[in-house]
Amino acid sequence: MSIKRSLTSVPLKLSTLLMLFFxxxxxxxxxxxxxxxxxxxxxxxxxxxxNANCKTCHKLDQKSVGPALRGVTDRRSxxxxxxxxxxxxxxxxxxxxxxxxxxxxxxxxxMPNHEFLSDDDLMNLLAYVEYGDKADAAxxxxxxxxxxxxxxxxxxxxxxxIILAVxxxxxxxxxxxxxxxxxxxxKYLKTQPLDEADQEFINQKSDFKKVFRSDAFVIIITALVVxxxxxxALDELYTIGVQQGxxxxxxxxxxxxxxxxxxxxxxxxxxxxxxxxxxxxxxSANICMNCHMHIQxxxxxxxxxxxxxxxYAAVDENKPIEWVRVHNxxxxxxxxxxxxxxxxGVECQTCHGPIEEMEVVYQHSTLTMGWCIDCHRQxxxxxxxxEYYDKLVxxxxxxxxxxxxxxxxxxxxxxxxx
Amino acid sequence: MKExxxxxxxxxxxxxxDESFVRNAEREFPEGPSNLDGSSRRxxxxxxxxxxxxxxxxxxxxxxxxxIPYVNKPVDINPSIPNYYASTFASxxxxxxxxxKTREGRPIKIDGNELSPITKGGTNAIVEASVLSLYxxxxxxxxxxNGEKSEWAALDAEVKSKLASAGSVKVITNTIISPxxxxxxxxxxxxxGGAEVITYDPVSSxxxxxxxxxxxxxxxxxxxxxxxxxxxxxxxxxxLGTWISPIEFAKQYVQGRKITKEKPVMSRHFQFESxxxxxxxxxxxRTPIKPSQSGLAILALYxxxxxxxxxxTVSAPAVEVEYLEKAAxxxxxxxxxxxxxxxxxDPNVQVVINAINDLLENNGVTVDFSRPxxxxxxxxxxxxxxxTDLKGGRVGAVVFFNCNPVYDxxxxxxxxxxxSKAKVSIATNGTMDETASLVQYVAPDHHYxxxxxxxxxxxxxxxxxxxxxxxxxxxxxxxESFLVWAGISTNYYDYLQENWRSSLMGTQSEISNFQEFxxxxxxxxxxxxxxxxxxxxxxADVAVAASAVAKSYKADNAGVExxxxxxxxxxxxxxxxxPWLQEMSDPISKATWDNYLTVSQKWANEHGLKMVEGAxxxxxxxxxxxxxxxxxxxxPGQAQGTVGLALGYGRSKAGRVANGxxxxxxxxxxSSKGFVNFDVTEGVSVELLTDTYxxxxxxxxxxxxxxxxxxxxxxxxxxxxxxxAGRYKPQIYKEGEFVKPSKISLWKGxxxxxxxxxxxxxxxxxxxxxxxxxxxxVENNVSVVGKQExxxxxxxAWIRIDRYYSSPEGASSNxxxxxxxxxxxxxxxxxxxQHCNNAPCETVCPVAATTHSSExxxxxxxxxxxxxxxxxxxxxxxxxxxxxxxxHDNKDFAAVNVxxxxxxxxxxxxxxxxxxxxxxxxxCSMCVQRIQSGKLTAKKxxxxxxxxxxxxxxxxxxxxxxIVFGDMNDPNSKITQMLKIQEDTISAVKEVNxxxxxxxxxxINVSPNxxxxxxxxxxxxxxx
Lengths: 418, 1024
Known about the structure:
CATH class of the largest domain in chain B: Alpha Beta
Structural class of chain A: mainly alpha
Largest interface: A-B, 57 and 49 residues
Largest sheet of chain B: 7 strands, mixed
Number of strands of chain B: 43
Helix content of chain B: 25-40%
Number of helices of chain B: 30
Number of strands of chain A: 1
InterPro entries (chain A): Cyt_c-like_dom, Cyt_c-like_dom_sf, Multihaem_cyt_sf
Signal peptide (chain A): 1-31
Order of helices and strands of chain A: HHHHHHHHHHHHHHHHEHHHH
Mean pLDDT of chain A: 82
Strand content of chain B: 15-25%
Distance between the termini of chain B: 20 Å
Domain Cytochrome c (chain A): 41-133
Radius of gyration of chain B: 29 Å
Helix content of chain A: 55-70%
Keywords (chain A): Heme, Iron, Membrane, Metal-binding, Signal, Transmembrane, Transmembrane helix
Shape of chain B: globular
CATH architecture of the domain at 40-150 in chain A: Orthogonal Bundle
Transmembrane segments (chain A): 159-185, 216-234
CATH architecture of the largest domain in chain B: 2-Layer Sandwich
CATH topology of the domain at 40-150 in chain A: Cytochrome Bc1 Complex, Chain D, domain 2
Oligomer: heterodimer
Strand order of the largest sheet of chain B: 7-6-18-17-16-8-9
Strand content of chain A: under 5%
């Protein structure tokens, strides 16, 4: 009974967790100024204005370059808000205490003027700010736990190991219990009067020594041991040169979790070569400087972060930053990012794993040839809209299966080795 | 069936079926096994066992590798994406408009610039190889004063003050074709009291310019146009290989040699020469003559033509020259569309040549003096005067502007002795060569790939060169040095622009903004002014010239004569420190790493010399009081009574590659007649010594074991009758009938659903120049192995040019051998992996390291190869190469394989191609890296691959478009149309309807994807 309970309880717990989050979602309520419309059209119109003008520096429910915006109409008057959006500097110059406070709080970063926005525009914008995209808020407030639960559709591997361990323990317990029962029964039978045959049966000693010495036993055990050793050795040999999980310390503690995860900077913004050439490119320091010209510290802290200071040093001294290469393909294989990303439309995460969650980048995949080939066997080609594949699609049209990479020579040697 | 009864042979040993040739030809691997420094097989296994264990242990700990980005990434440089810059190769007067491919800011490959009206996208071996000289460690890294490293400021201060008080200043240079350089030199000259600029050329064309001066009043070279000539007569001018502007001439020449069923016409080419040259090898009628006869032969031609034209003839001693009458007749019949050229440096001979072209009305059509070329401006007379002045102590200061007369001028030794007599001596040479090492100040120039410059190779034609890399060393552009010394502070780039603004901007009206004009010219690499021709007139007295010629040439010279020539790969020797050029086998002799005395078979027989597989003896050649000891090479086609010797060898200070290779033939030249004479007809004696020597010749390596029909050829007359003339069509008996070999196969046959790559090689267009072999070496990181390994038959070239001699019958006696080798026909056949559809190599590989792709390629996977060499053994074309050694990062090969051994040399490697390790087979991949990249570009743009998007390195380099690469599945591709493939099929076996197209060794039905087109000779009848 206990086993069954422990097995079923896992998904149960997960679902309760999930339910809890959705409940929380509903309970999170912001107060908003009643003047602000909550009509669908206003929110939609506001969203497009927000995306065009505000998104770079603001988020609805999180502090970004500028403050989180939701609830602003509750905190400030609508008039004040409009003035601030149109021309924050004028408001600050006029000595408005609230404006000066927020200016100082955010490192005296100047917010651009938006005098081109009409009153209606601004009202729509505020509608979006107050009522738009509430799911974001839920995820943001749920934080780290939420993402784990969200991914828990199947049984996570850690649970599987625990289940297996429990099973083994239970089986062992059963074995011991059975042994105990046998010994108790034997003792009991010995006290009973029995006929000769039964007597003999009970008294027979299982001669373990004889079993151990038997040829069959020795051969089986030897074979098992040899097989185990060979298997371990082969497995070990196969891992030579495989650096899965390799996470070297980098000269700058750059966090993909922060940049790609939290701030959702697209990968291509820094890895400029990924759609044009073989190398994805480690960004040059001048690309870092596009943002870090303004952002000198993390989490809105004052001063210059020592890690960010390293970029400034590199630029000042004109000395490149010597990153440690994480993904080392051997020279004998040719890999081209553009083929996979621009032509094949493969997501970065397919090979690089959950990069947006990595504080320190590690090698997610094995990068072995078997791993490449597996993917080439299973992946369908993105042929639509690409005239290059027309003839191949036409020739393949008779087949029931999708056109896979392997069907057009994706397993051939000279695709990667030359 | 085959009609001609010719015997084809690559070397004399094959013709005579010599024992050692047969032994090697029949062995699986004539190159033999290799020992590790004399250790035994047992030791090898021990070492191997240990290193395996060590390697597995070491492999557990992967080394930390860095990924270092730019600090500021330049906008137009993306790692892994090549950039191309139009530029210009110029070395003295040798000229080619080029496109430089750079990767991550490093020039790695040079291609021809198709926009150039002169070289039209062609290159040659020297141009292709010049990218490696950029990364030559022999280049000077700093300025030098009296042999000590110094600073520019110190050098400038000293040079300026010393020049000012030196007295007469002379600038010695090779031909300058750059107008801005000339202007800068003029400024320098003006600053130092009219310093004289004296031009000489190591391989001089003074005879032509002097003759032009005598005939037309100005010392110029004409513009030649071989494309308009239907009859070509050349007296010793190797215009396809080395003469003046060979890339340009090859482009023109081949227009008259391309032949189709629809247009079965072709030019006829007569060659009269002493050494078998590349041009002679391509001639329809070739007559070996002695240099001493050449002047008389030209007079005889003049008289024959004059007789027909009704002009006055000149008196000349009679001379018997085969085909001369025939040539005269055909020239006259094709007057106005024929051409006569001579390689002679004798002005009187060239006057007669001008007169012949005048009589033939070729002037202004094929030989155009109204549009002068500037490739050669050397003045032998002035240079001789300079040497006399220098010896007499009348030269105050001498500046050697990127020239090396101590090595490459006939009186080099005298210059070397007297340099110290000049108060000031300066050189701008980039290396510490024979001349630079003797001067006080060396102000090293940039390499041309680091420099700005302009060029004016021909009246009205301009081109630019631009830096493709920042200067690697502390060098300074020589033009800038001259400006600095002249007290002008403008940098040369601004100076150059200013010169274009003032002199060229006004020649066009299309663009009004100078920057736009400049940018466009720089982008194109070339700029042509609207055509202008200067009127020329004048007539030299042919009779005077003729009588001078008649005096100095003899019809019956009994003594040995020396004809000095230049090799296609080495040229005048200024690029000889380039291992790619040294290892490129000479198109004719197929020898590498050496120069040698070429002698005729008759001479060899008389002296009891038998040359087998490169093993020969040395000889002592004496000219006047100078003598050299040099190995002898028996050269079929060598004129009787002559010997040949190549320039460009015998360097003592070229650098570690070229130092000590061969002998310096410049020493033997004769300048007694006021011009540098490359034909030494008097006072030559040759004495065969007993010392033995081995010349690393590749001609009998990789032989076809006597299989016939590898070469298929016909005469033009036969071709007109039957387009499939000369074709051998093997038939196989099957079930009661004879069928084509391709109809019988064990294989199911491949299907190529998307692409079917192939090559079509026109043996009529291939002139054998070898540009493709060097281009392949550069593109595919092919190792250089050095002379000893070539002797061991281990050269690594992926593409070779098989040169076949042919003669009517096989020879069995010495007498017949002489006749066969006297004047053989020559055929060139580029040979690379044939990418067979039924590949014999693929079936024998035990580890599937060589496999077939779905695009028709035979793939070689180095990382899978274990080196059994079964594939090489089973390859009928002998195109697979085994890495006997680790050629990279190996000190034993550091001196020859510089591109893979030092840090600087490695910068030239193509990053898209693996450098192969020891113990694996490699071979032509049909430039699969280019195919993959071309396909990717098409895919990214969402379109089909267009014909021309992708091209192999060999086809790109070919100056005669003899190699055509393309997709045989694409009905619009050039290759499909050439082969006349009509059906649209994805089958590997295509029905080819072009009658000339054939497969080498069709009878074994390996079904190659490389097609050859029969060789057609414009001969009246088949004769050898």
